[in-house]
Amino acid sequence: MKKLLAFALAAMMVLSLAACGGAGSASSAAPAAPSAAAGSEAVSQAAATGAKKIGILAPAVTHGWVAAVAYHAEARCKELAGKVDYKLYTSNNAEEMTTQLDDLMTWGAQAIVAFPQWKGMEVPIKKALDAGITVVNFDIEINADGVYRVSGDNEDMGVQGAKYVVDKIGKTGNVIILDVPTSGSVAQLRKKGFTDTIAKLAPDMKMTTYATKFTREDGLKDFADILVKNPKIDAVYSMDDETSIGVLQAIKEAGRSDIKVVTGGGGSQEYFKMMPENKNIWIESALYSPSMVRDAVDVAVDVLDGKKVDKVKIIPTTIVDRDNWEKFKDEKSPY
Fold it and tell me: What is the pTM of this model?
């Protein structure tokens, strides 16, 4: 009987530890928040080792680029083992991310790297800031005072895309803009950069905007409809490599030969490999590498170390096409 009781108690302890999670763990769902005492104990342990406690909040994987963000964030934290203790959570919506942020606060996070893909994170982020936690916003902008930010240059991606289109087709033609309204400031800035620059460089260019999403499935489905509605298209301003892969498939299936340029954005290795294969279409990607999240982790560490850090760090745009794509091959990349 005593042996059975001891076994039962041991099993309960294992289940309890598994439920709470720990430094260096990753989760795809919001965990039950541990007690305040557990959080205090975790802070004490971190203080004893000198490690910085950093939480990572990322969206659930709906896109290869998003998956690579979580991959690179965790990889960087592992590279900083001994200097950093971390927890990484992925979520499906703002409500779930908010719950996870609360858990990180209870855990004793000193800094949080947040990559939200939805509106509604301003209030919970402010709560973390008011608690003295350093917050580094990756990619999509969080409108909250005191947040550090690391991002690519979304507006310049649009600027460079416009220059590329004009360079390849001239100052007149029919251009389809694939907007993604659900992506917030990302699409807004990319579209602004593109349309403002076209207006300056090629005011006679005809631009027609359609809504889609950052997935190849939506790119294929939506662009198949667009092709039916538009018998003559010279170029496509797509903001994302995944969308563009779907666009190229739709063009191929429709047997269209009028389209001379398809842009993209992100840094998909699969998309890069398509560039030299399509001799009749100039395939372009404005490099917006998910590995930039490593910079966000480094910013969090530097702030906690008391170093002087700029509030905003913008990574410059690089254009990739058939002429230089081999320079950006990375067989180890998950994207």
Answer: 0.69
